[in-house]
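Worked example 2:
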Amino acid sequence: MVILRTQDEIKSYSLEMKKAGKVIGLVPTMGALHEGHLTLMREAKAKTDVVIASVFVNPVQFGPNEDFDAYPRDFEGDCQKMEKAGVDAVFHPTPEEMYPDGFCTYVNVEGEFTKRLCGGQRPGHFRGVATVVTKLINLARADKAFFGQKDAQQVCVIRRFVEDLAIPVEINMVPIVREESGLARSSRNMYLSAKEKEAALVLSRSLNKAKEAFDGGLTKASAVKQIIVDEINKEPLAAIDYVEIYSFPELEEIEYINREAIMAIAVKIGKTRLIDNVILEG
C-alpha cells in the first residue's frame, strides 16, 4: 500500500494508473476508521481495479464550535486496517497541502435541500464537504467514489454537484453498517462512555419502531415522526437535534409517505452528536 502525502504525489500516481487502463475507486474518509469505512473500501475493491482512500480531517467542513481539534486521529492504526481491506494507495495530506496560501475557491451547493437536516444545523458544512470531495475526485482521477448511507444528505449533495458540474464520476452509496446492538458505526462512538453508548441505542430503536409502524400501514409522515420523537424522549441522556421525514433523494417535505422517503435523526448523547437514518420504500 502506497502512502501519498502531496497533491503532486497523488496526481502522479493516479495518472500512472489511468495510463495503465485501471478503473479507480475513491473512498474519502476523515480517518478513525471503523467497519463502516472498511465496508466502503471492500465495496470499492470489488467494483474497481485500484482503490485510493483519503485520510484527511477537513477543517473547512467544521464550524467554529465543533470538534475539529478533538476529532479522533490514528493514522498508523488506520493504515493497518486499510491494507487488510485491500486499499492500494492512501492520500494523507496536511491542511496546508490541501488549502495552501492563496486558496480561495469553494464549491457551494445552493439547493434548499442543503439547508435541511445537518445542513440546517451546521452552516457552511456542505460547502466544506463539496469543496474537498471535488478536489479529491479530481486529484484521484476517480471513476467511482464510495460513501456511506449514514451520511445520506451528504450523498445527495455530492450527487447534485457531480451532476451539475458534469464531473465524470459514479457516486455509490453503501448501506449503513451497524454494531450488533443496532448502533450505527461512527468514529464519534469512541467519545461515548459505556452508559452513553447504551443510551445511544435509542437512535436505532426509535427508527425501527417507526419503520414497523410504517410497514404496518401508517403513512402520515407527522404520525410516523412522532413515534420517533416519543421514543427518543424516553431516554434521559438523549437530546433531539432534529427528527425529520423527507422524500428521498430530493429531501422535500411530504405529508404522506407514498414514495421513497428517509427518516433522518440527529441526537446528542451527552456532548456527542450522533446521526442515523432509515430509507423507506413508499
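The mean pLDDT is 96. The chain has two domains: 2-174, 187-277.
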